[in-house]
Amino acid sequence: MGIIARIMEQAGDRTAVLAGGAPISFARLNSDIDAAAMKLRSQGVGTGKTIGIRAGAAENGHSYTNWIAHLAVIKLGATHVSMTDKAAVKGALQAGKVDLVLGHFESLIDVPPSVSRFEFHLDPGAPTAVGEAVANDEQSARRLNLTSGTTNRPKFIVWDAAMIEQRVDQVGEMANAETKLFPLLHLRTTAGFRYPLATWAAGGCVILPRAAKGLERDVEALPDANLITCSPPQLKERLFGLKGEWPGREGRTIMLLGGRLPTALRDVALQRACTRLLISYGSTETGSIAMGEHEVIERHPGAVGFLRDGVEAEIVSAKGEPVPAGQPGLIRTRSAIMAGGYEEGSGPTGGSVFRDGWFYPGDIGRLYEDGLLAIDGRTGDMLNLGGWKISAVNLETMVGGLPGVKDVCAVGLQLDEGDILTFGIVCDDDFDVRGLTEKIRGMLKNNRRFHVIRMPSIPRNAMGKIPRPLIASQLTALYGAVKKNAANA
Question: What is the DSSP string of 228-270?
Fold first, then answer.
């Protein structure tokens, strides 16, 4: 039975959504899906069409309007792509794969006239007309996933209806009828898409706060949420911004996806935000690979859990030769629900590649004899500074744990004075950068040279990963400006 069919079978009086604090029942949710499907069918939406969806105003795509548009398009058996940020819009349109874009007026402005546009809006607070039920054609539906890793160059993975269902079922163990999910990861990501679907398929509730920016959304949603899905940087940002114990901490689980869990972040989260903290590792290409409780990082700082059922993983050398258990090397993996490859018109970038029946995500990791998987970083995270090779992730973990550092990125800059380790840091205006520099100098060995440069923010992709080439270019420009100002002083 498909996901939409399972949602339609839930008891109508159960709460499916908390939209801005207002409960919406499954009966209302299903009625809105059908009403939207009827409207979209009149625009030619159906099997064989690819629909770009960017309806609603929420920053991360999780608005009621946007989700109704997604569910209706799936029910009509069309292909859909979540275009809820500029990178997704640009990638989807460049691929020439979109027949129609759904959205509100403001969101459609940068869609070129050559692509059909249809303004779609749904007010969750207004009554809805009960229309006729629309036939469920979800077995023809497909999802076009844009995955860029840390390269900012989108690649395309297509899930057919069977894979959509398999990917949702894989995380179904986290959801039941009592689940109240607050999804922080962007809807266009694998986790942002499938965790809400798994929650609804189990009869649970998804929390969609008002379209507010920043931490205002969280303050509204937290008291009700017993499951939060987010990345480590998202969790860190909220632990910085929301002081004291989070309301509803008792009985809450936080699922972290997309990065390593620093020990200090774990300890604060368990003290203030939740009573259970899980780590998961996977990809759009293969699905979830490993999952574990927070204690696994005591074994290795990059531990992400134990291999899941139906998953194979190996650690190999650059020549493809297996390395001993517990030793670092390139990760390669495959699963029963692995995609067959990238779509025509896109391809392997940033180290991610399908080869010989395996998927190489571009990560360096370790696999222990008991199945525990640990991630040391991405291949692009290993800095080579004049022969000095060091993990950028380890440096960021070290510096990011210092008081007052809100965010940090470590890169190597190619300057006139040589290849120099450089930290971009986010901090308050009155932060003592000179004192931080002295602390870092004491942590590094052999008097290694480095620079510390303030940044207003550190850009990250939808999963919280750092695009290092982009940041290196930004820091090079900032360094040049600082040096020029010093010379003119």
Answer: EEE-HHHHHHHHHHS-SPPTT-TT-EEEEESS---HHHHHHHH
Q: Helix, strand, coil % (nearest 5) of the chain?
A: 30, 30, 40
Angle (nearest 5°) at CA 445 between 442 and 449: 80
Question: Two tokens at 21?
Answer: 């604090």
What's the pLDDT tens digit per position in 92-134?
Answer: 666 557 889 998 877 777 777 878 889 898 877 777 666 678 8
42-53 tens-digit pLDDT: 999 999 999 999
Top CATH class of 386-488 equals alpha beta
Q: What is the DSSP string of 282-336?
A: EETTTEEEEEEEGGGGGT-TTEEEEEPTTEEEEEE-TTS-B--TT--EEEEEEET
Condensed to tens digits (0 to 9), the pLDDT of residues 213-228 reads: 677 788 889 999 999 9
Structure tokens at 222: 């937290």
Hey, where are the domains in the chain? 3-372, 386-488
**Top-confidence residue, 220 or 464:** 220
- Contact yes or no for 116/52 (Cβ under 8 A): no
Query: What is the Cα–Cα distance from 237 to 231, expressed in whole angstroms?
Result: 10
Q: Which fold has domain 3-372?
A: Rossmann fold (3.40.50)
Q: What is the pTM of this model?
A: 0.84
